[in-house]
Amino acid sequence: MGSQFVNGGIVMQCFAIQLKHPLPDKMKHSFLEIVDDELRKKLARYKRKSDFELNLCTHVLLRIVINRFYQYDFNKIAFSKNLYGKPYIEQGNIHFNISHSHEWGVCVIDDTPVGVDIERVTPIDVRSMMNCFSDSEQKAIFQLSITDQLQTFYRIWVLKESYLKKLGVGLSKALSSFTFHTEDERVIVQDNQYVHGTHYFYEENIDNYKVAICAEHNDFPENISVISIQELSGYIADLNVRN
Fold it and tell me: Are 4 and 15 in contact (CB under 8 A)?
């Protein structure tokens, strides 16, 4: 297995995978054997083949990370969802979250609630999306140049999504109901509804994508480890040989 999977202790683990080309049929079949029936049925509803395959790879990556660091059998991982649809693992003290966008998928596991979001930076009409931002966020964005507006929009967007996903409340909470700003190089979220605890954020750029992770602690890895499709397939093959 690649050096990215060296076990340095059970702390937060962050991995990303890129899918630039369609999966070979043999590899796709081996990946589908790793996931459960419910996910296979969900994946079958995707209209775009690329979305189906990236979602599949991200879920396989998640299961491999759990297997590698927690020694859980793929077939014995029991997934459930909370009232708002956030998935969790029934057994053990394992929290996770995944996200995918275009060519990239990311997954994070930790021993406390965590949220992650990834988005590709593409040209959009920023003004048309301002109903998702607080008044102070809008003011800060429109003081910037057009190019910086776009970059800042996506930066705040992934921060907001990672925060909501960490809370596990889905879209029941409006994106404009809380505010992000930077103070002494630290990202701060102001939220009058959720005042308990402190939230910490990690940000990284991967190619032309922005990634944000929200956690209850600031013990983040130095960077997100990138795993290739070949490494993913090789790990599954190794497991099959050992079993």
Answer: yes
